[in-house]
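From the methods appendix. Each design record in this collection lists the tokenized structure first, followed by the designed amino acid sequence. Records were kept in a plain field format so they could be parsed without special tools. The example shown here is representative of the layout used throughout.

RECORD:
FOLD TOKENS (358 positions):
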């Protein structure tokens, strides 16, 4: 096998276009996260990869094999669902061995392989327990071991952490990632949790409205968002609407020095991450008067809410950094370094122009 490729994959339910002409390559041995808001088509895409849903159009290739019409049970893909879907009346060991029995593996070999898988997910001491006697994290590990029992070519997980509490979820994200790396298995994880995607993935696919908005390593998705949707969905950002002009952007009466790469007079949306805006004394372009309206101390992060001539914004500092401490009502200056400004064509202005042209 070498990688899994989707070519122009679509899915329509009645009048709803759930997945719209998606082209993607899932690298061999890589973990890819499908990330996006509720209803964007992540689960439908995963179900088509699994063979549980037939595409309305397009092709799915595994290496050089066309598997578009191959039924799910012949794909040799392992799946873990949100609910884990374990058999409550069976022991942990029998849950893992079950799929081996039904695929014709002898009882003793199935028990042997189940034992090794329970070792792998650190549950050897729990083999004789029933599912009802396990914690959420332990159940998830059983579901993972069971999915891996068939030695799948591709491992698919749909919101695998959503039944776990926040602390356990973070631990399991790290464990799952380490296990996936150890096994080197091509893996796709559906999630709506960006921290989960950033913790585990080699590559993140950001989706909205059935389409792919951006694909890339987590750091690129965060630091080099390709459009306003990605900048908004991943991490936090301050947004301002403006118009390009020589040397930068005009926002209301304020000129910001920037390199917008668009012709003059184009409506644009400007984004800056809260940690890239500075409340400091350093000289530089784009210093604007600012008034502190709210301060939030979140422990590791201190957050200042400001009013400025270009609009309201939030600035963040890691605890212990950022020099001077400000309070509500203080006036100061905020600096927006030109290289920290992300500039996108304004999507709403685009829609308005398109409507005007119709
Ligand atoms: N069997 C179905 N019949 C009709 N519409 C469906 C069906 N399955 C999904 N849809 C619709 O397709 C769109 C995409 O749904 P999907 O479950 O793939 O989204 P999602 O990104 O996984 O959402 P969530 O994070 O809420 O699970 C939604 O508008 C949904 O209502």
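DESIGN:
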């Amino acid at each position: 096998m070498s990688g899994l490729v989707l070519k122009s994959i679509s899915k329509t339910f009645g009048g709803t276009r759930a997945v719209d002409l998606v082209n993607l390559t899932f690298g061999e041995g890589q973990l890819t996260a499908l990330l996006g808001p509720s209803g964007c088509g992540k689960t439908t895409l995963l179900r088509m990869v699994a063979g549980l849903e037939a595409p309305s159009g397009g092709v799915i290739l595994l290496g050089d094999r066309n598997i578009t019409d191959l039924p799910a049970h012949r794909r040799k893909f392992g799946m873990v669902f949100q609910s884990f879907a374990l058999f409550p009346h069976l022991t942990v060991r029998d849950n893992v061995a079950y799929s081996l029995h039904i695929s014709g593996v002898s009882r003793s070999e199935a028990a042997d392989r189940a034992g090794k898988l329970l070792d792998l997910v650190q549950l050897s001491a729990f083999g004789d327990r029933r599912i009802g006697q396990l914690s959420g994290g332990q159940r998830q590990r059983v579901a993972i071991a069971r999915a891996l029992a068939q030695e799948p070519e591709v491992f698919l997980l749909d919101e695998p952490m959503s039944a776990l509490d926040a602390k356990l979820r973070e631990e399991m994200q790290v464990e799952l990632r380490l296990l996936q790396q150890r096994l080197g298995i091509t893996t796709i994880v559906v999630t709506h949790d960006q921290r989960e995607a950033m913790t585990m993935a080699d590559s993140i696919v950001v989706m909205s409205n059935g389409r792919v908005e951006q694909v890339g390593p987590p750091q690129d998705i965060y630091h080099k968002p390709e459009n306003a949707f990605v900048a908004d969905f991943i991490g936090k950002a301050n947004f301002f609407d403006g118009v390009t002009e020589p040397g930068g952007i005009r926002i209301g009466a304020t000129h910001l020095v920037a390199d917008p790469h668009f012709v003059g007079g184009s409506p644009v949306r400007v984004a800056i991450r809260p940690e890239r805006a500075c409340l400091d004394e350093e000289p530089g372009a784009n210093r604007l008067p600012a008034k502190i309206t709210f301060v939030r101390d979140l422990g590791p992060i201190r957050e200042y809410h400001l009013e400025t001539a270009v609009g309201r914004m939030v600035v963040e500092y890691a605890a212990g950094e950022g020099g001077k401490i400000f309070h509500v009502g203080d006036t100061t200056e905020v600096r927006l370094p030109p290289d920290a400004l992300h500039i996108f064509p304004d999507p709403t202005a685009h829609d308005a122009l398109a409507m005007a042209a119709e």
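APPENDIX NOTE: The pocket of adenosine-5'-triphosphate is lined by residues 13, 16, 18, 36, 38-44, 192 (CB under 6 Å).
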